[in-house]
Q: What sequence folds into this?
């Protein structure tokens, strides 16, 4: 029988993927929470007496984030007002069920909950969008709209920070994706623990250095209630290729996740490189790196019967818009429903993969 590496004298029940230490439950909880506390304090993620919206999907990451934030806030007296912000994409059999878990989290942690829906914001649900665009590029729409919906929700709640549940695996996957795509702009931004989209509400990632497997372990041993069914549209996401590659590399060397993150943090972009500059969308007024933001283009395409308008290179979009203008077809949009952001990362499916890897099942089987 192995005893806890922390020398508490108790029986070890798990081996940490991140460090290789064998620990009892109590010592694992303390180590896990203290590492997140160290991340928060070192990066100075929050100021006292401020309001933090936690992006809540009902999944393991956001559930653990909400639980740990509440625990640390009380333990170390952060002085934070914590609220939950959830997005209803309108995915039948997925989001409708996961929102019930979010409501349970609301009751368990005593945090106010605000739900924003695609239908109310944009006039479309993801089910309706997929019926138009098909399953190949649906994550482009979901990623752009979800990101902007979180921004709108954060502004509506008048919070000071928006905390997301991105973990180390997510960030390593994003780095690989941006390298494979040659996307320098997102490569330099995706490793930042604090990002500001220009709306004055920073996004923070308290779980940046937490391994996904350890998040599963924490949720399991804490008996937290979370939703583990994957998005029905996830198998078609490009992120799946990066995840499969990362998991294959992790089998060879478990430190590869942190190595990729540290590499991404130290990559310097040549000052002569042509980087996009932030401006404001000429239609909706939100921050964008293009004259017309990605979300406005996507929404216009849906409303005008051109659902693939915003999928692909911006040069193609400009050509299609010009052709329709020459034909006398209006390209105006409803500014009430117009949205912004060009980030293509799909948070609703960011933790899925092509091989349907069930990380919860793998981890829990390893613990037996």
A:
């Amino acid at each position: 029988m192995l005893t806890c590496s922390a020398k508490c004298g108790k029986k070890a029940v798990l081996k940490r993927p991140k460090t290789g230490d064998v620990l009892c439950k109590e010592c694992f909880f303390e180590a896990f929470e203290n590492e997140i506390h160290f991340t928060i304090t070192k990066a100075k993620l929050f100021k006292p007496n401020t309001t933090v919206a936690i992006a809540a999907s009902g999944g393991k990451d956001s559930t653990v984030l909400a639980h740990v934030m509440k625990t640390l806030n009380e333990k170390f007296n952060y002085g934070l007002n914590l609220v939950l912000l959830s997005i209803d994409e309108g995915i039948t059999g997925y989001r409708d069920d996961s929102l019930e878990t979010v409501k349970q989290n609301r009751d368990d942690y005593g945090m106010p909950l605000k739900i924003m829906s695609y239908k109310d914001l944009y006039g479309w649900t993801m089910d309706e969008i997929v019926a138009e665009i098909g399953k190949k590029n649906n994550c482009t729409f979901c990623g752009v709209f979800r990101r902007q919906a979180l921004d709108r929700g954060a502004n509506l709640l008048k919070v000071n920070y928006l905390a997301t549940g991105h973990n180390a695996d997510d960030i390593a996957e994003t780095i690989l994706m941006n390298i494979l795509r040659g996307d320098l702009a997102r490569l330099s931004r995706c490793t930042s623990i604090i990002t500001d989209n220009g709306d004055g509400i920073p996004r923070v990632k308290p779980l940046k250095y937490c391994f996904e497997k350890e998040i599963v372990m924490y949720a399991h041993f804490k008996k937290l209630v979370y939703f583990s069914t994957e998005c029905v549209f996830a198998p078609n996401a490009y992120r799946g290729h990066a995840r499969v590659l990362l998991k294959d590399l992790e089998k060879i060397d478990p430190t590869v996740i942190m190595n990729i993150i540290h590499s991404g943090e130290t990559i310097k972009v040549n000052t002569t490189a042509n980087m996009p500059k932030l401006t404001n969308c000429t239609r909706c007024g939100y921050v964008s790196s293009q004259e017309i933001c990605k979300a406005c283009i996507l929404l216009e395409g849906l409303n005008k019967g051109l659902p693939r308008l915003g999928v692909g290179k911006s040069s193609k979009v400009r050509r299609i818009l010009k052709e329709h203008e020459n034909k006398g077809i209006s390209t105006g949009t409803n500014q009430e429903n117009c949205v912004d952001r060009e980030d293509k990362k799909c948070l609703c499916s960011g933790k899925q993969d092509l091989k349907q890897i069930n990380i919860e099942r793998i981890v829990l089987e390893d613990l037996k």
Observations:
- The first helix runs from residue 25 to 43.
- The first strand starts at residue 14 and ends at 15.
- Strands lie at 14-15, 22-23, 51-55, 81-88, 113-117, 161-163, 194-195, 203-204, 279-280, 287-288.
